[in-house]
């Protein structure tokens, strides 16, 4: 398998979009955060072209369709968002892929061949993930339609995407757009099936193991009962990624509104790019197990250890030191081997006491950070824990910032990114603000409001 494989599995509900879902989109905050992590990794990879398979692009039942348009445009007007979304196409790659697929005897056609197929038109399953992953709209795009031919031909199509990209010397990322089961709850719009959760569990586990080929052998009755729309996209990504097992990371899975949403990275380049973006945010390690630790770090560690061991944690005892505020926002950061293993926090107080704030965030950092799998018992022995207690933020100008002394909050419209102070490798204000903007998905040059804050850092 090539070391330059970058694949993304991404959900596509229009409700994620601010103009459609508004505040309700934050019900799926884990997915939004995971898409942001995937976006930062993709930006670091810097593809020339994104090839995306959409289950909602025009479909020919027994033929694959490839859009060879030079310009692609669409909107989410049917969902209440009238904004126009557009990306440049890559006709050279698309045409070469068309020829390659035809050359191995798999039925394929260009969407331009029939006006009913609306060549150059973007459906919501393309617009939504790309709006989070590639909102600069400058990377070239090729859209593939799935077919109802067998899974093996979908995987072969993915292999041909990688082969053609390599032949052209094109740096390509593959996005598998698709939601999981639409039948997770009794109020789901597609109806309820008890096998929906079973299907999603099987898909997530195969992706987590990097065994994308196993998806071709799922029980047909399970797939039918689950009511998914993303399986063929992921199988095609498996062909693009190469022989199993492939390197992969599940960034999040959740099932609000009765539909499963999986966000994951696949391929060596994807994991390498992801790790590079995370290493910019690791900061200084906190106290290690067995070392003298501050009271507040001991509280965070004890909470994590209890939760990992038993699935629950007792109500935290009040902090005894008068140095701590009664209430405050706090971040709990976990590291192993100097690498980030989880970080969750709150900008302002959300719990009745600081002890409860830290305990709640410690559990989330260990178990619910969408960038990582839940912490395992065997990881506790060398876990480093750090707690940052935040002072109230204050409005500021760029010249008021100091990345050593102050953290920064960057806000642009509904997007907000935060970066803690005194992080390894963050040496100047421009870098600090740029990383905070990247975390929020704020495009370069967008108007922003700045706030700065101090922290008390405990190890």
Give me the secondary-structure topology:
Layout (H helix, E strand, L loop, with lengths): L5 E5 L7 H4 L7 H17 L3 E6 L9 E3 L4 E6 L4 E8 L2 H13 L4 E3 L13 H10 L6 E6 L5 H18 L3 E6 L17 H15 L10 H7 L4 H11 L6 E7 L6 E6 L1 H12 L7 E2 L6 H16 L19 E7 L2 E7 L8 H14 L16 E7 L3 E3 L10 E6 L2 E5 L9 H12 L8 E5 L1 E4 L1
Parallel strand pairs: 1-8, 2-7, 2-8, 3-6
Antiparallel strand pairs: 1-10, 3-7, 4-5, 9-10, 11-14, 12-13, 12-14, 14-19, 15-18, 16-17, 16-18
Helix pairs in contact: 2-9, 3-5, 5-8, 6-7, 10-11
Low confidence ranges: 279-291
Q: What is the spatial order of strands in the main beta sheet? A: 6-3-7-2-8-1-10-9
Global morphology: globular
What fraction of residues sit in β-strands? 15-25%
Number of helical elements: 12
CATH superfamily of the largest domain: LigB-like
CA-to-CA gap between the ends?
42 Å
Q: Write down the Rg.
A: 23 Å
CATH class of the largest domain: Alpha Beta
Structural class: alpha+beta
Q: What do we call the CATH topology of the largest domain?
A: Protocatechuate 4,5-dioxygenase, Chain B
User: How many DSSP E strands?
Assistant: 19
Q: Into how many domains do the coordinates divide?
A: 2
Largest pleated sheet = 8 strands, mixed
Average pLDDT confidence is 91
Which CATH architecture of the largest domain is right? 3-Layer(aba) Sandwich
Question: What is the helix fraction of residues, given as a range?
Answer: 25-40%
Question: Would you give an account of this structure?
Answer:
α2 packs across α9. The strands form four sheets. Strands 6-3-7-2-8-1-10-9 form an eight-stranded mixed beta sheet, with helices on both faces. It is globular and about 75 Å long. The protein has helices at 18-21, 29-45, 91-103, 124-133, 151-168, 195-209, 220-226, 231-241, 268-279, 295-310, 354-367, 429-440, and strands spanning 6-10, 49-54, 64-66, 71-76, 81-88, 108-110, 140-145, 172-177, 248-254, 261-266, 287-288, 330-336, 339-345, 384-390, 394-396, 407-412, 415-419, 449-453, 455-458. The chain folds into two domains: 6-279, Protocatechuate 4,5-dioxygenase, Chain B; 287-458, Hypothetical protein ph0010, domain 1 (Glycoprotein, Type 4 Pilin), CATH 3.30.700.20. It has 459 residues and is of the alpha+beta class. A hairpin with a 4-residue loop joins β4 and β5. Residues 279-291 have low confidence and may be disordered. The two termini are 42 Å apart.
